[in-house]
Amino acid sequence: MQKNVKPCYYADYLQLDKLLDAQHPESTKYGAEAHDETLFIIVHQAYELWFKQVLHEIHAILPVLSQDPVNEDQLSTVNLRIERIHRIQEVLVDQIDILETMTPLDFLDFRDYLIPASGFQSIQFKEIEILLGLKSEFRINFDKKSFYNRLNEKDRNYLLNLEEQPSLFDAVEHWLERMPFLEFGDFKFWQMYKDAVEDMLKHDEQVIKDADYLTDAEKTFQLNDLSNTRSNFDALFDKDKYQELKQQGRFRLSQEATLSALFINLYREQPMLNSPFRLLQGLIDIDEKFTTWRYRHTTMVHRMLGTKIGTGGSSGHDYLKQTTQNNRFFRDLFNLTTFLIPRSSLPELPPEVIKAVNFHL
């Protein structure tokens, strides 16, 4: 049944008069139009439209995960919105294929007309990064101050204010810290898990020592590696050691949040933990897909510019390569696999915990 009073016309609804009249190549101001500049504009405008949709999804997710407590019924919707972000990210990567139909010489026809404009000035992308948790203190050095110097006052103040607001990383951390199943009545999971880890490490140590096919040097190497693994586990259980590594930047999540995320990963097959597990995996996928996009972008810039500096004053390809490796959101969630142990070694959950994680709480 029609609900609108006034007929809706396609071109008016999409405001195509504005959208299709928004491509104005800079090269025409100085002579003949550089043919590929229109492609360059349209691809970047498309990026900004997709960034707007990603922000729309993040702004819907953040309030849900900021609740105390988080409504379990809403996690499925959160996971669907995260899945939509994944699909958009795949489109972002695919658009690079279109942009790479432009040759380096085609790009040079108009590149120098764009100085000092650059991707630095994509406020929406920086907003995405900040909302996901990549604030100035976690950026590479060039980004910490130089980036803000390239913005006008309005945009700079907007993003600086946003840095003071809770991010999705913060919301997820606080949500994880409230995990109710780590200590449940007489059940203390982490003591049981610690004992299981110790048994596993002792077994691995004995296997190495008894391995006749290894030379003494190879045994020493593997035993040293096992010692490092033991140190990682020790830090996981020791609050002071964990805090020391956190101050060194080895961890960002609190110890409580890390332990809860690990519990979810270890027992993800339990009904109440399935949606939280999917959420954590979804956040890892967001991080991985943006890393992939940065890598493809870095490779494209290298292909187009070689080692020339970027129009925004960065070192171009070298700068982008650093951001690919270091500007990450949820590295802690990737590192959880360090602490996984075989299913056969997992402590068995007592009946009262099994009952709780099966929605009988």
Automatic annotation (TrEMBL):
GO terms, biological process = L-tryptophan catabolic process to acetyl-CoA; L-tryptophan catabolic process to kynurenine
Gene encoding this polypeptide? kynA
Q: How is the cofactor bound?
A: Binds 1 heme group per subunit.
Write down the EC number.
1.13.11.11
| Keyword Iron found | yes
Where does this protein act, in terms of pathway? Answer: Amino-acid degradation; L-tryptophan degradation via kynurenine pathway; L-kynurenine from L-tryptophan: step 1/2
Which positions bind substrate? 40-44, 111, 311
Cofactors demanded by this protein: heme
Q: What class of enzyme is it?
A: oxidoreductase
Catalysed reaction, written as an equation = L-tryptophan + O2 = N-formyl-L-kynurenine
The entry sums up its family as follows: Belongs to the tryptophan 2,3-dioxygenase family.
- Quaternary context: Homotetramer.
- Pfam families referenced in this protein's UniProt entry, alphabetically: Trp_dioxygenase
Q: What is this protein called?
A: Tryptophan 2,3-dioxygenase
- Binding-site list for heme: 297
Enumerate the UniProt keywords alphabetically: Dioxygenase, Heme, Iron, Metal-binding, Oxidoreductase, Tryptophan catabolism
- What is the native source organism of this protein? Kangiella geojedonensis
Report the function annotation for this chain.
Answer: Heme-dependent dioxygenase that catalyzes the oxidative cleavage of the L-tryptophan (L-Trp) pyrrole ring and converts L-tryptophan to N-formyl-L-kynurenine. Catalyzes the oxidative cleavage of the indole moiety.
